[in-house]
């Protein structure tokens, strides 16, 4: 349920106040509520699966931007140092938002390799210490 609410907030926020303010809001929210290292879910793939389950409860189409913002937020709040990226390709004309955590890419698209990164929002949290 929490992820469904986050997706709805991201959707409305990106449409009405823009990407920069949405990212800043999620970053401030995450810094207040980040998990203690002992309470972190260790598997980022499990976190991503939990986020994607929230899509079915939202009554509107969820685009890659909102998926990436919420995934970036959830990974960072659980102390996984994820980076939010937004890119564009001119041939074919397309844009996409995705999240990188090390070598892993979340919110995948077949065009990512050809994309020119236009916006890069770094991690705002410390990684889990081994």
Overview of the structural elements:
The protein has 130 residues and is an alpha+beta fold. Helices cover 42% and strands 20% of the residues. It has helices at 2-16, 19-33, 44-53, 64-77, and strands at residues 83-90, 93-101, 104-106, 116-121. Strands 3-2-1-4 form a 4-stranded antiparallel sheet, covered by helices on one side. A hairpin with a 2-residue loop joins strand 1 and strand 2 (93-101). Helix 1 packs antiparallel against helix 2. The longest helix has 15 residues, at 2-16. It is globular, with a radius of gyration of 14 Å. The model has no long low-confidence stretch (mean pLDDT 87).
Q: Would you kindly provide a brief summary of this structure?
A:
By secondary structure, this protein is α+β, with helices and mostly antiparallel strands. Helices cover 42% and strands 20% of the residues. A hairpin with a 2-residue loop joins strand 2 and strand 3.
SSE layout and pairings?
Blueprint (H helix, E strand, L loop, with lengths): L1 H15 L2 H15 L10 H10 L10 H14 L5 E8 L2 E9 L2 E3 L9 E6 L9
Antiparallel strand pairs: 1-2, 1-4, 2-3
Return the structural class: alpha+beta
The share of residues in extended strands comes to 15-25%
Q: Biggest sheet, open or closed, and with what strands and sense?
A: 4 strands, antiparallel
Roughly how much helix do the residues carry, as a percent range? Answer: 40-55%
Distance between the termini: 30 Å
Radius of gyration, in Å, reads 14 Å
Q: Write down the secondary-structure element order.
A: HHHHEEEE
């Amino acid at each position: 349920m929490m992820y469904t609410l986050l997706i709805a907030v991201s959707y409305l926020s990106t449409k009405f106040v823009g990407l920069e303010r949405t990212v800043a809001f999620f970053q401030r929210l995450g810094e207040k509520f980040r998990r203690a290292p002992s309470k972190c879910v260790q598997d980022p793939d499990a976190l991503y699966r939990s986020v994607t389950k929230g899509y079915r409860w939202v009554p509107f189409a969820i685009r890659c931007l909102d998926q990436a913002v919420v995934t970036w937020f959830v990974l960072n709040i659980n102390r996984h140092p994820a980076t939010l990226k937004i890119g564009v390709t001119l041939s074919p004309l397309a844009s996409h938002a995705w999240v990188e955590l090390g070598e892993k890419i979340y919110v995948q698209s077949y065009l990512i390799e050809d994309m020119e990164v236009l916006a890069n929002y770094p991690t705002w949290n410390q990684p889990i210490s081994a």
